[in-house]
Amino acid sequence: MGKSKILFSVMLLTPSLCLAQRAQKDDGSSISVRLPGTAIAAMQKIDPEHIRYHVRFLSHDLLEGRGTGQRGGDIAAEYMATQFALDGLKPAGDNGTFMQKVPLVGITPDPATKFSLVPSNGPAWDLKPLEDYVAYDQTQQTKSDVDAEIVYVGYGIEAPEYKWDDYKGVDVSGKILLMLVNEPPSDDVNFFKGKALTYYGRWTYKYEEAARKGAVGVLLVHKTDMASYPWEVVRNSNSGEKSFLKLDGAQALKVASWIQLDVARQLAAGAGMDLEKMMEDATSRDFHPVALPVKLKAHMVSKVRSFESNNVLAVLPGGDSKLKNEAVMYTAHYDHLGIRPDMPGDNIYNGANDNATGCGILLEVARTYSLAGQKPRRSILFASVTAEEQGLLGSEYLGKHPPFPAAKISLDLNYDDVPPLGSPEEVEVSGAERTTFYPVVRVLANTFRLAIRPDSRPEAGHFYRSDHFSLARVGIPAFSINEGVKYKGHDAAWGKQQADDFTAKHYHQPSDEYHADMDFTGDAVMARFGFALGWLAAGQVKEVGWQKGDEFEPARMKSASGIQ
Ligand SMILES: [Zn+2]
After folding, report:
1. What DSSP letter does each residue of 386-407 carry, written as one string?
2. Ligand 1: distance of its center to the CA of 333 in Å?
3. Ligand 1 midpoint to CA 348 (Å)
4. What's the 237 CA to ligand 1 centre distance in angstroms?
5. Which of 125, 179, 372, 562 is a good FRET partner for 154, with 20 to 30 A between their CA atoms?
């Protein structure tokens, strides 16, 4: 019998008792983690069976896999909104509704696209789609033409906090930028976080930075070990329709592309250079962009389809007359991969784990706040976002159009794919350690008897692949809450095996379905843990921030200055 077990038993008997723990902060001062009795009483009512029935409904075949822009996805959104309304929450979407419309565009590259490299002396060279390159026209036009000089920009990164700048102020507007994936290799945690991947290493950043600098296109060199996945993955995820947020006047690339390593090698050779040497040069701080005597000539043809979907937003106004203008937010995406009518056999991607579980938890947390006999000081926002599977698009839109100014949102807690496997003894909160809230997270995890499990593969950059990231990029301290791999009655190897089996056999497949023998105990624990964390964040005098020097700190400062 551990201390917290006793504490919780006591709480059950006398719900008016305060949960109070003190912990030492790094600077020697102590923090108090205190939940009022009414909040504890509400938290005790969190029920795994409620989560079960939300999951059962949301992953039912009738919802047809909750595809973005599909009927089943819209029904899921209505379900979330209805539950929020039943909890007495206020709408926080467009025009007094629970819905925030997210305008989307689906783009499919057309076989009529032409893509060739033209050396200044020598014949032009046509590249074969999917074999040699993949490319999307991010300007969302049906036709674009490009005839531009290629400039090699190394990793294509400008990161002042690491004193790294591949561009060195060179004007690249109107150019095609040849660049490498990932980031300069390092074992030093103070330099691009050592082995961990930072956002600078993600291809999305590289496209965005190039567009900000006015380039017309990017050729990303694919190298299997640097990308950490083979060309097949690039090809498969870039062959059909891809969704984007409808452009709102921002700069965009006419050619957002990857090229095969061999193509890059030949391109370098055609310019009288050596690719290996170019890659080596890019690892130096003194790297300077190099213009190649080669042009890219491209005739981009695309099918463009506009459609829309909704984020579902609800708010519980805070109890403090001043702090209620600030918020703590919870997020969980409701969309999944939908239905594929052309596919034989089971063609419904039910998405029970991914992410009906997160939605069930979100709804149970919302119900708990509405049950508490008092309100937290800050307002509590609930956002069930769309188009996560399309590339975090719903949350990206939410980050750009938050119902409270981003600087006034103290914290975002996200739930994505929380497996119904029983009673967890670990919690994963990767990214929490980057925020000023971490001492509270640690104390609370301890109270819940949950060991904090560190990110097992920081080099994979999981932090950048879930919805909390969309909010972090606009400066909001954000992280996901999930179980680790150690469950009561099992060793960690068992939990790891369950996770690996799920990834291999069910992840993003029609077999990610609801089963009556699923055990939602752990989902309820994650709901309670997140509820307590959110309540504590909502009551703090000072809002949560990023640790000094964190890559998201500048975005936080920028959003704060925008409203003062
Ligand atoms: Zn997914």
Report:
1. S-STTTSHHHHHHHHS-SS-GG
2. 9
3. 14
4. 14
5. 125
Helix axis angle, 521-539 to 357-371, nearest 10°: 50
Backbone φ and ψ for 219, nearest 5 degrees, come out as: -110, 105
Evaluate whether 136 touches 302 at the Cβ level (below 8 Å).
yes
The alpha carbon of 390 and the centre of ligand 1 are apart by a number of angstroms equal to: 9
* Under 8 Å between Cβ of 481 and 491: no
How many A from CA of 355 to the centre of ligand 1? 7
The Å distance, Cα 437 to ligand 1 centre, comes to: 27
Beta bridge partners of 133: 129, 259
Cα–ligand 1 centroid distance for 455 (angstroms): 18
* CA-angle at 159, arms to 558 and 475, nearest 5°: 30
- 287-312 per-position pLDDT tens digit: 999 999 999 999 999 999 999 999 99
- CA–CA separation, 496 and 205 (whole Å): 31
Q: Which DSSP state fits 430?
A: T
Rounded distance from Cα 389 to ligand 1 centre (Å): 5
pTM, 2 dp: 0.89
Question: Per this entry, what is the length of the chain?
Answer: 564
**Closest-CA residue to 479 (of 458, 464, 499):** 464
The alpha carbon of 365 and the centre of ligand 1 are apart by a number of angstroms equal to: 21
Backbone region of residue 473 per phi and psi (left: phi > 0; alpha: psi in -120 to 50; beta: other values): alpha
Enter the tokens of residue 76.
């899921």
User: Which residues, including other chains, have CB under 8 Å from residue 281's CB and lie 6 or more apart?
Assistant: 154, 287
Q: How far is the CA of 512 from the centre of ligand 1 (A)?
A: 10
Per the CB < 8 A criterion, the answer to whether 294 and 267 are in contact is yes
Give the pLDDT confidence of 423-479 residue by residue, as tens digits. Answer: 999 999 999 999 999 999 999 999 999 999 998 778 778 888 899 999 999 999 999
Place of tokens 């990834």: 503
- Tokens 């949560």 -> residue: 544
d(CA 513, CA 332): 18
